[in-house]
């Protein structure tokens, strides 16, 4: 969640390659929204990576595989 409405559906729309409005919204979220504080979450492992001052910390600690 970005903290503001992104107007994106939870899943890609069918035939998204030809949906110019959907592609514009995805482009905006991926390339124009800057996250300053928060976290990224891995969908496979559930591990959270903190973001501080716009920089994600994706380093593992010594006790993590």
UniProtKB/TrEMBL annotation:
<dbReference type="GO" id="GO:0030488">
    <property type="term" value="P:tRNA methylation"/>
</dbReference>
<dbReference type="GO" id="GO:0046982">
    <property type="term" value="F:protein heterodimerization activity"/>
</dbReference>
<dbReference type="InterPro" id="IPR005651">
    <property type="entry name" value="Trm112-like"/>
</dbReference>
<comment type="similarity">
    <text>Belongs to the TRM112 family.</text>
</comment>
<dbReference type="GO" id="GO:0070476">
    <property type="term" value="P:rRNA (guanine-N7)-methylation"/>
</dbReference>
<dbReference type="InterPro" id="IPR039127">
    <property type="entry name" value="Trm112"/>
</dbReference>
<protein>
    <recommendedName>
        <fullName>Multifunctional methyltransferase subunit TRM112-like protein</fullName>
    </recommendedName>
</protein>
<dbReference type="Pfam" id="PF03966">
    <property type="entry name" value="Trm112p"/>
</dbReference>
